[in-house]
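Notebook entry, structure prediction.
Reason for the run: the old model in the group folder had no record of what sequence produced it. Starting over properly, with the input documented here first.
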Amino acid sequence: MSNDQRGPASVKEDGTGRAEQGGPILSDGAPLNPAPSEWEIRGFEAFFAPLRAWTSPRFFGLDNIPAEGPVLIVANHNLLGGIDAPLLMPAILRERGRLVRGLAEHVLMQPGVREILHRFGAVRGTRSNCLALLERGEAVVVFPGGGREAIRRKGEKYVLKWEGRTGFARMAIQAGVPIVPLAMIGIDDAYDIVFDGQHPAMRPLRWTCELLGINPELNPPLVKGIGPTPIPRPERFYFSAGAPIDPTPWLEAEDLDGAAADLRDVVRKGLEEELQFLFAERERDAGRSLFGRLRGALPW
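New structure, fully documented this time:
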């Protein structure tokens, strides 16, 4: 999320996407009640069907996500970001009946792209948008590590980059909503980083990012998957949602900054525990690789 501290405006939607006085409004004209059709959902899943077949994802603990009421889902970013989320969101929709509202990076909210994101519930990642959605009883997913956690460097495999990131905890305290830590692994095993974004060989790309107004810290790495190609190795993806964390002990704190930092650390510990669970599942899974999955499907 950005450092936007503003609260939600006092307006409400009239059913057509317009707003009237009395309820919240979202930035960029995002609808309060996105309702992708069954055909759109099927089309979305069909588009990502090759990725699903290639990675054969497994999901654990999705029943920890409340079927109704406001909840903040706090997840880790994997390498490059956004590759695994298209598998997670439909799974939550199928199992919990909820369209999770994503908080998208500002760079993604460009004309033509943002309309598609809006259609499937995503909004610009601001605190005002987050609060507005939580006040409406929505399930909102946030990645505290942001782009920096996704744009990894060598030696940062599955490392959480949450230093100074307390915004999500502050939102949970302000809205008084539970937090569900959700861990994801897989893509960091499917790629190797050849050069990270800060390597001298990547200087031309850093210059290009600067010319485009993109933070050079978010210069993507050069990766390889199968052999020297950009095709990811067919490693299985794993997802696990932990038990909800109740923010009640922090609601009456006089020092909101300290309370947010404390809650952040509790959530981080919960997420790290879910990561350790997934690492253990991965190690004992005979179908972690495509070869293992094919061998397991043979009739012997």
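Summary: Confidence is low (pLDDT under 50) at residues 1-21.
The old model has been moved to the deprecated folder.
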